[in-house]
Amino acid sequence: GQQLNQSPQSMFIQEGEDVSMNCTSSSIFNTWLWYKQDPGEGPVLLIALYKAGELTSNGRLTAQFGITRKDSFLNISASIPSDVGIYFCAGQLVGGGSNYKLTFGKGTLLTVNP
Amino acid sequence: SQTIHQWPATLVQPVGSPLSLECTVEGTSNPNLYWYRQAAGRGLQLLFYSIGIDQISSEVPQNLSASRPQDRQFILSSKKLLLSDSGFYLCAGTGTGGNEQFFGPGTRLTVL
Q: pLDDT tens digit string along B45-76?
């Protein structure tokens, strides 16, 4: 099946630092979503992107839908300990019977040292 | 706003026993519904999805089945559990008019 390459796989940062993670694919997507999952819980939607080039912020989070429609990034500014968790990108492919499904990246595990 | 409920939260079952996990949705009608499994190590594997009552699509061959007897109810079942069925099971649903999936709190299944 289609794959999203999410990187980095894990990050260890100090509180206050900025964080950047991204997802890339060889296929075109018409939707990009970013989720955060706390340990033992379900993923929570952080940001949804629907247009190529779109740049959206949610508090300290900023995400962009790549202009080629094959990539997206998520930035977290001034990290705090509660930012710890797994961040997933997800996208909906254009056509190919994928109207009802999302393709997920494998996640970025973020650890923030106080 | 949409809310996804799952139960039980945790479950420990012996190999060969049956399974029934339930997911219900509040706050939207006619959602697309999904069952995912997340093994230790993070990735989300889509197991089943449903676009309507009694309409189930299976993504991977496996020991599990899904049913949707009502618009806002999605059930994951097995007649005989295997050790490899252990994992974190997540139900998700779409809201009205969007591709965004909202997840439930998950069920941690341990098969011994």
A: 999 999 999 999 998 878 899 999 999 999 99
CB atoms within 10 A of CB A111: 13
Please list every residue in chain A whose beta carbon sits closer than 8 Å to the beta carbon of residue B90. 42-43
Strand (E) positions, A38-78? Answer: 44-49, 55-58, 61-65, 71-76
CB pairs under 8 A between A and B: 45
What is the pLDDT, as a whole number, of residue B43? Answer: 87
Between the alpha carbon of residue B32 and those of residues A47, B53, B96, the distances in Å are: 20, 10, 9
If you search the block for the tokens 């595990």, which residue do you land on? A109
B99 contacts A102? CB cut-off 8 A: yes
A100: confidence class by pLDDT, cuts 50, 70, 90:
confident
| Cα(B52)–Cα(A13) distance, integer angstroms | 44
Residues of chain A contacting residue B92, judged by C-beta atoms under 8 Å apart: 42
Torsion angle (degrees, nearest 10) of CA A17, A52, A50, A69: -90
Cβ pair A34, A53 in contact under 8 A: no
CB < 8 Å from A in window 59-88 of B: none
> Which of B101, B102, B107, B109 best tests the A interface by mutation, with the highest count of A CBs <10 A?
B101
Neighbouring residues of B51: CB distance < 8 A, sequence distance ≥ 6? A100, B32, B57
| A21 contacts A4 by C-beta, under 8 angstroms | no
